[in-house]
């Protein structure tokens, strides 16, 4: 049994090598399980968004070259266009000015009508048409009428009270009698589909009046209330590599297209509990997350480090612009975090951070590739009871009032007929030294594979992930195993981090790279994944194994 004097001596001897900066660097190596979960969840959401974003309806193609002739033509002195309300009439006038003073015939007039129709379709007004009424062109005046297609009715499913509430919360700027804009309908379907259990389809039917349309939206629901159990070996060595997760989710409890999730993540010496609420509303998306994490790390024979963090995240996004190829979203957020650490029973100085962020996200669909890029600026504030940095704080010490930039770029495209490439570049540049919750973390299945349980972190850095999937090879394997779908992929990753302060390895920077392949087997909504990775490069002696085999089992109910 250790008496008080010997315990104090042991504690002082233990703390001797752990100065304040050293303790801070040890602490940042232990990334919160809640933080890891939220980051990986966000990246997964972005990958899925990139792949599923497509126009909801095939928009009308431009009319093919007709057999009209300009052999008989009329000199046009003026052009009048009636019925233009939904777009700037000057855009139409710019087109009509090209024919004034010209001798034009049927072919040239048809091209002018197509150009006016294209103006509308590019802006989402796909049921609007320009046409030529009966007239005498020999007088030198050309009259064009535009019939702007309008909404007669928008109906979701059977128009129950729940259906009407969900539609009201999802549909921006489309009322009975308004000009039908496909961009508004696409946004509505995105919001209706925000809950993972919902899939929507949209159809347009001719209305009772000329130029009107009935908009019919139907949804199918699967697993509105769901549960998830999973396990993997992607934990950290100092807190336990084997992890266990439980999750509960529910959608449309309030009929506002909302989603609520509750998740638990645990390993040998970590626990995390996360509550999430996502509430889309027309052009807006609001999300609220509350998380609690704790960990225990052994420092020596006589001492241990115990940490707790309590975090709140609030985000508000606004869809600024969209068409068939582009979607631009403005993003904002506010996070509150409190971290408490103990060495044995001695409490260290608590860390309280208030962080505001602003950013922009751009989705782009090219002919054969898809892009999703984002840029985000974060600033640590000295409000809402946040820790205030002293005036004489050294550069190497973590700052509560900090600034940093983050950028993500997702890219995907087919590689011929046999393979499909998905790449992700994630980078961060900090202008100050950061606490662990704000740093870049490398190692594990979510960043640079081949370094499970070996975390590296820094104030600045990046990682690049490249995955090549082989769908035909996976399909061939699936035919061998009944009721099982198999997917195969290979990958190569690399990453780099740098800090102003030395890490626990006595270095200011680290670089990693790894490669390997993975096999995923699906049975219904459940999945088993195996990943074999080998480190290619690591700073100094960080390569501990020639290869690493990781697994995860995910059961959904």
Can you characterise this structure?
It is a single chain. The protein has 557 residues and is α+β, with helices and mostly antiparallel strands. It folds into 2 domains: 4-55 and 222-556, membrane protein fhac: a member of the omp85/tpsb transporter family (Porin); 73-123 and 125-180, Roll (Ubiquitin-like (UB roll)), CATH 3.10.20.310. Helix content is 17%, strand content 46%. It has helices at residues 4-15, 20-29, 33-52, 89-96, 106-122, 161-170, 182-192, 471-478; strands at 74-75, 78-82, 103-104, 129-131, 141-147, 150-156, 198-206, 212-221, 225-232, 243-251, 259-267, 270-281, 284-298, 304-322, 326-343, 346-347, 351-365, 370-381, 403-415, 419-430, 440-442, 456-458, 460-469, 485-498, 509-523, 526-538, 548-556. A 16-stranded antiparallel beta barrel has the order 9-10-11-12-13-14-15-17-18-19-20-23-24-25-26-27. Strands 2-5-4 form a 3-stranded mixed β-sheet, with helices on one face. A hairpin with a 2-residue loop joins strand 25 (509-523) and strand 26. Helix 4 (89-96) packs antiparallel against helix 5 (106-122) and helix 6 packs across helix 7. The protein is elongated, with a radius of gyration of 30 Å. Residues 1-22 have low confidence and may be disordered.
């Amino acid at each position: 049994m250790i008496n008080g004097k010997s315990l104090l001596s042991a504690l002082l001897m233990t703390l001797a090598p752990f100065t304040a900066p050293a303790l801070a660097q040890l602490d940042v190596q232990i990334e919160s399980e809640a933080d890891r979960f939220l980051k990986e969840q966000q990246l997964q959401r972005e990958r899925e968004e990139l792949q599923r974003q497509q126009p909801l309806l095939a928009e009308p193609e431009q009319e093919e070259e007709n057999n009209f002739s300009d052999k008989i033509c009329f000199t046009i002195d003026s052009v009048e266009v009636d019925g233009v309300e939904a777009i700037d009439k000057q855009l139409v006038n710019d087109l009509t000015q090209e024919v004034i003073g010209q001798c034009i015939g049927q072919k040239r007039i048809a091209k002018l009508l197509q150009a006016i129709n294209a103006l509308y379709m590019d802006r989402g007004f796909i049921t609007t048409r320009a046409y030529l009424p009966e007239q005498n062109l020999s007088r030198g005046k050309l009259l064009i009428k535009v019939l702007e297609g309008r909404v007669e009715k928008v109906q979701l499913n059977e128009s129950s009270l729940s259906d009407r509430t969900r539609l009201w919360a999802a549909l921006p700027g489309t009322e009975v009698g308004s000009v039908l804009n496909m961009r508004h309908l696409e946004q509505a379907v995105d919001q209706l589909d925000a809950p993972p259990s919902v899939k929507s389809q949209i159809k347009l039917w001719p209305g009772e009046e000329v130029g009107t349309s009935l908009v019919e939206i139907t949804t199918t629901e699967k697993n509105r209330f769901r549960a998830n159990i999973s396990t993997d070996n992607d934990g950290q060595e100092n807190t336990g590599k084997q992890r266990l997760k439980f999750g509960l989710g529910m959608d449309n409890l309030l009929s506002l297209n909302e989603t609520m999730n509750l998740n638990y993540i645990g390993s040998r010496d970590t626990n995390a509990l996360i509550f999430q609420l996502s509430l889309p509303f027309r052009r807006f998306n609001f999300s609220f997350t509350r998380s609690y994490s704790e960990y225990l790390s052994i420092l020596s024979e006589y001492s241990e480090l115990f940490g707790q963090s309590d975090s709140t995240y609030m985000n508000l996004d606004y869809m600024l612009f969209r068409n068939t190829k582009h979607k631009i979203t403005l993003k904002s957020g506010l996070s509150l975090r409190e971290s408490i650490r103990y060495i044995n029973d001695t409490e260290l100085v608590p860390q309280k951070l208030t962080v505001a962020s602003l950013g922009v996200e751009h989705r782009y669909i090219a002919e054969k590739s898809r892009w999703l890029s984002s840029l985000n600026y974060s600033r640590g504030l000295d409000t809402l009871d946040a820790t205030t940095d002293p005036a004489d704080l050294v550069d190497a010490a973590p700052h509560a009032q900090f600034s940093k930039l983050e950028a993500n770029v997702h890219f995907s495209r087919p590689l011929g007929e046999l393979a499909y490439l998905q790449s992700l570049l994630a980078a961060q540049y900090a202008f100050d030294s950061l606490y662990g919750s704000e740093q870049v973390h490398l190692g594990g299945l979510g960043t640079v594979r081949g370094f499970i349980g070996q975390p590296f972190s820094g104030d600045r850095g990046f990682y690049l992930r490249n995955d090549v999937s082989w769908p035909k090879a996976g399909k061939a394997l699936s035919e061998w195993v009944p009721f099982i779908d198999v997917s195969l992929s290979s990958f190569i990753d690399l990453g780099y981090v740098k800090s102003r302060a030395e890490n626990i390895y006595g270095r200011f920077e680290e670089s990693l790279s790894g490669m390997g392949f993975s096999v995923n087997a699906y049975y219904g909504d459940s999945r088993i994944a195996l990943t074999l990775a080998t480190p290619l490069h690591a700073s100094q002696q960080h390569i501990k194994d020639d290869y690493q085999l990781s697994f995860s089992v995910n059961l959904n109910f």
